Automatic annotation (TrEMBL):
<keyword id="KW-0964">Secreted</keyword>
<dbReference type="InterPro" id="IPR034197">
    <property type="entry name" value="Peptidases_S8_3"/>
</dbReference>
<feature type="transmembrane region" description="Helical">
    <location>
        <begin position="6"/>
        <end position="25"/>
    </location>
</feature>
<dbReference type="GO" id="GO:0004252">
    <property type="term" value="F:serine-type endopeptidase activity"/>
</dbReference>
<dbReference type="InterPro" id="IPR045051">
    <property type="entry name" value="SBT"/>
</dbReference>
<dbReference type="GO" id="GO:0009609">
    <property type="term" value="P:response to symbiotic bacterium"/>
</dbReference>
<feature type="domain" description="Inhibitor I9">
    <location>
        <begin position="35"/>
        <end position="110"/>
    </location>
</feature>
<feature type="active site" description="Charge relay system">
    <location>
        <position position="199"/>
    </location>
</feature>
<protein>
    <submittedName>
        <fullName>Putative cucumisin</fullName>
        <ecNumber>3.4.21.25</ecNumber>
    </submittedName>
</protein>
<dbReference type="GO" id="GO:0006508">
    <property type="term" value="P:proteolysis"/>
</dbReference>
<dbReference type="InterPro" id="IPR023828">
    <property type="entry name" value="Peptidase_S8_Ser-AS"/>
</dbReference>
<keyword id="KW-0378">Hydrolase</keyword>
<keyword id="KW-1133">Transmembrane helix</keyword>
<dbReference type="InterPro" id="IPR036852">
    <property type="entry name" value="Peptidase_S8/S53_dom_sf"/>
</dbReference>
<dbReference type="Pfam" id="PF05922">
    <property type="entry name" value="Inhibitor_I9"/>
</dbReference>
<feature type="active site" description="Charge relay system">
    <location>
        <position position="142"/>
    </location>
</feature>
<keyword id="KW-0812">Transmembrane</keyword>
Length: 735
């Protein structure tokens, strides 16, 4: 089955490395890897020549005169830095230079693989401002795009917006149009912006694809496909090739997208774990985007439901979790004794004939251990035993090889059955309980037989629920900033696809489609980007923070959705996205570039903060240093020591963007036995638009129990009778 952005770890043996380096010191020293050297903002200097500056710095550390041979990229349009092939020693020397903020290896990030819009109350009839929307440019940093897709046709589009400064350099046989206005390629393994994987086509069409009627995946998930802002333009930055998406390419894409004039950037990519901000390419790119008024939407990651698994942690990014919609795709298996079990897979195959004999992998192998055989591992199944039968396996992998050995179908086991993925053969995937029942059936019946049906749609009344795979908080880098920020649809999403890509990862699967179903925070991220663009079309002058605030404070509360002991806010942040409400939030929590700089002061040294800000910012010291807790974030969080009573004060201010004359009252929703929350003042009266008012929130409690994930949550709602401006408050014990 398609993986959710799994990463291969390579384990090194320390002793071996020590021994080798003892003998091969010279050779190891010559080992070069691509690093990113981040220098912060571009100097405000007309005569500044970034490339010669970059070469000059490199020249100081490489032994030869051939610095140019090692320089692989220069970032010079929106911020300053470069990528170079460096030895460890060169890396250290660069990192110690005062004009360098950080040096870090370029790592490989991964893609974090329609009715979904209707499901969030965003139907085709909602109010739009098509003329402004068509001046909106969505920058999509992904695996490229399929330019001929109907979702990107330019019928009815005028020329690109005047502010557009990009180009169409999509390679051979790649043409842009008035909808798809730009393309650039950074992936070293491909010369064309054409999408070979389908992922970038899917995300671009979710954010801003045209309205295309009557599409489906072999009759499943049928309906109208459309992006959040169908009139907006798309600019594509291809950073992912077959081997993933290198961070040096991602930074180059940000450098261009910002300078090209993108209004919103969507990045459905990530790594398996969070990095410090100065080593995180998406955080760095998004910071400079924010400084130019551009909001970045980023997938939270697909490493859930473990806690602290969210990899997108920067406060200037809109970090998006993935949740279900009311449409599920299920797949039934009928036992010959008449019992039907419901599995989770997208199975478009119809098994001919009625009942097929069922055999357990363990009973179909002469060569392998019981565990391997039960898992239907490669090479374990005996052709003679499985031919013409349905094979029961204990895992979700291994079907490719087994199919080749003649099996007609598969029953697999899932840890979490909330997500159905496309299967390459007739297959159903059952949750543990049903899977054990089937096992029992194979053993208790002389001639067990089953029929695997074609998938069908079912209504899910519990939706929206955060998907099991969606990465959770707490934020391991800045625990006072709740991440993810928001949840959006990301389960079994139908959108445009690349007609040359396989719909599954199976080599045996020859199906090619123009619209396909994918799940992941990769799919929820462009939903949020589309929603952000929709808000921006109504409020072109709003800051990234204001747009983000409006999406967060109008989000619908969600239910705690899994069995983990973690707070629900760690799964969905402020809640489920509601774009229609977000265009009229009433109040917004603003944050300027200076506010984010102040926040950086709490995690970086002043010289590095100055390089990033590009000005003479000073970090205050001592008691005035400012705490993360006081950053004007639209949600409130703090970390406390277990078993110790606490009294925490959060300073916030809100800006009136609703009605000029308005009075807002604060209401606290809390579990009063554990915390006491006070807001001062409790009433905010505004006389004009854009007026700002400060308030503070004090949260006091007797102490959290000293347990894993102990937390207490509440929420603050400012209401004027028309608008409801909601912020979750989360006090937890986990760094
Ligand atoms: C970086 O240098 C190494 C030699 O240490 C070489 O094998 C590698 O191909 C170089 N990478 C690039 C992208 O030039
Ligand atoms: C769209 O927005 C523009 C600029 O804000 C405004 O002049 C125009 O009246 C709006 N049109 C509609 C239909 O709201
Ligand atoms: C251009 O690409 C399209 C889509 O893959 C293909 O159908 C067409 O034949 C290509 N044209 C040329 C000249 O390569
Ligand atoms: C079922 O039969 C049809 C028509 O004979 C055939 O096209 C199809 O491939 C068969 N399906 C399977 C799963 O064997
Ligand atoms: C069992 O393993 C042997 C050696 O690896 C291999 O030659 C043989 O084909 C295997 N038998 C089956 C039934 O897979
Ligand atoms: C069936 O029972 C046998 C013997 O009790 C056991 O070894 C085997 O694992 C069982 N198979 C299943 C599918 O539970
Ligand atoms: C069929 O077999 C399964 C597994 O043993 C069992 O749970 C179920 O009750 C049986 N159904 C009928 C109708 O006997
Ligand atoms: C939460 O779940 C309960 C019980 O299933 C349900 O009654 C309630 O409506 C749900 N609330 C939301 C916001 O979905
Ligand atoms: C949640 O708990 C229930 C009851 O303990 C259990 O049946 C279910 O499998 C659990 N779900 C997950 C996703 O762990
Ligand atoms: C920083 O301050 C120095 C001394 O006051 C001044 O000369 C310089 O122009 C300032 N730089 C910037 C970027 O503002
Ligand atoms: C706001 O209310 C005051 C007092 O009710 C009134 O005098 C004033 O005209 C109102 N201003 C606006 C902009 O509606
Ligand atoms: C409030 O806290 C108590 C004690 O921890 C807990 O038992 C109860 O379920 C909580 N109630 C709500 C509504 O969260």
């Amino acid at each position: 089955m398609a993986n959710h952005g799994a990463i291969l770890f390579s384990y090194a043996f320390p002793t071996l490395i020590l021994t080798l380096s003892f003998f091969l010191c010279k050779a190891i020293d010559e080992n070069r890897t691509i690093h990113i050297v981040y220098l912060g903002s571009l100097p405000d200097n007309e005569v500044y020549s970034p490339t010669s500056h970059h070469l000059g710095l490199l020249q100081k550390v490489v032994d030869s005169n051939s610095a140019a041979n090692f320089l692989t990229r220069s970032y010079k349009r929106s911020f300053s830095g470069f990528a170079a092939n460096l030895t460890d020693r060169e890396r250290e020397r660069l990192a110690n230079m005062k004009e360098v903020v950080s040096v870090f290896p370029s790592r490989i990030l991964h893609p974090q693989t329609i009715r979904s819009w209707d499901f969030i109350g965003f139907n085709e009839k909602i109010r739009r401002n098509a003329s402004v929307e068509s001046d909106t440019i969505i920058g999509v940093i992904d695996s490229g795009i399929w330019p001929e897709s109907e979702s990107f046709k330019d019928d009815g589009f005028g020329p690109p917006p005047k502010k557009w400064k990009g180009t169409c350099e999509g390679g051979q046989n790649f043409t842009c149009n008035k909808k798809l206005i730009g393309a650039r390629v950074y992936s070293s393994s491909s010369e064309s912006a054409r999408d070979e994987q389908g992922h970038g086509t899917h995300t671009a069409s979710t954010a801003a694809g045209n309205t295309v009627k009557d599409v489906s995946f072999y009759g499943l998930a049928g309906g109208t496909a459309r992006g959040g802002v169908p009139s907006a333009r798309i600019a594509v930055y291809k950073v992912c090739g077959q081997d993933g998406c290198p961070s040096d390419a991602i930074l180059a894409a940000f450098d261009d997208a910002i300078a090209d004039g993108a209004d919103i950037i969507t990045v459905s990519l990530g790594s398996e774990e969070a990095s410090l901000l100065q080593y995180d390419p998406i955080a760095i790119g998004a910071f400079h985007a924010m400084a130019k008024g551009v909001l970045t939407s980023n997938s939270a990651g697909n490493s859930g439901p473990d806690d602290s698994s969210v990899s997108s942690v920067a406060p200037w990014i809109l970090t998006v979790a993935a949740s279900s919609t009311d449409r599920r795709i299920i797949d039934k298996v009928v036992l010959r004794n008449g019992t039907t079990m419901v599995g989770a897979s997208v199975n478009t195959f119809k098994l001919n004939g009625t009942n097929f004999p069922l055999i357990y992998g363990k009973d179909a192998s002469s060569n392998c251990s019981e565990i391997e055989a039960g898992s239907c591992s490669d090479g374990c199944l005996d052709r003679g035993l499985v031919k013409g039968k349905v094979v029961l396996c204990d895992v979700t992998s291994g079907v490719d090889e087994a199919y080749v050995s003649g099996a007609v179908g598969f029953i697999l086991r899932l840890d979490y059955d909330d997500v159905s993925e496309i299967v390459p053969f007739p297959t159903t995937a059952l949750a543990n309980k049903e899977h054990s029942l089937i096992k029992l059936y194979t053993n208790s019946t002389k001639d067990p037989r089953v029929k695997i049906q074609r998938s069908e749609e079912a209504r899910d009344t519990a939706a929206p629920v955060v998907a099991s795979f969606s990465s959770r908080g707490p934020n391991s880098i800045l625990p006072e900033i709740i991440k993810p920020d928001i949840s959006a649809p990301g389960v079994t999403i139908l959108a445009a696809f690349s007609p040359i890509a396989s719909v599954t990862e199976s080599l045996q699967d020859t199906r090619r489609v123009k619209y396909s179903i994918l799940s992941g925070t990769s799919m929820s991220c462009p939903h949020a980007a589309g929603a952000a663009a929709y808000v921006k079309a109504f409020h072109p002058d709003w800051s990234p923070a204001a747009i983000k605030s409006s999406l967060m404070t109008t989000a619908s509360p969600m239910n705690v959705s899994d069995n983990s002991s973690a707070a629900g806010e760690f799964a969905y942040g402020s809640g489920h996205i509601n774009p229609v409400k977000a265009i009229d939030p009433g109040l917004v929590y603003e944050a300027s570039k200076e506010d984010y700089i102040k926040l950086l002061c709490s995690v970086l040294d002043q010289p590095d903060v100055r390089l990033i800000s590009g000005d003479n910012s000073t970090c205050s010291t001592g008691s005035d240093k400012g705490s993360l807790q006081d950053h004007n974030y639209p949600s409130l969080a703090a970390v406390v020591t277990p078993n110790k009573s606490f009294s925490l004060k959060f300073n916030r201010k809100v800006k009136n963007v609703g009605l000029a004359n308005s009075t807002y009252k604060a209401t606290i929703f809390a579990n009063s036995t554990q915390v006491d929350v006070k807001v001062v003042p409790q009433v905010l009266s505004f006389k004009s638009l854009n007026e700002e008012k400060a308030f503070d929130v004090t949260v006091a409690g007797k102490g959290l129990p000293d347990e894993v994930q102990s937390h207490v949550s509440a929420s603050l709602v400012w209401s004027d009778g028309i608008h409801s401006v909601r912020s979750p408050i989360l006090i937890h014990n986990k760094q």
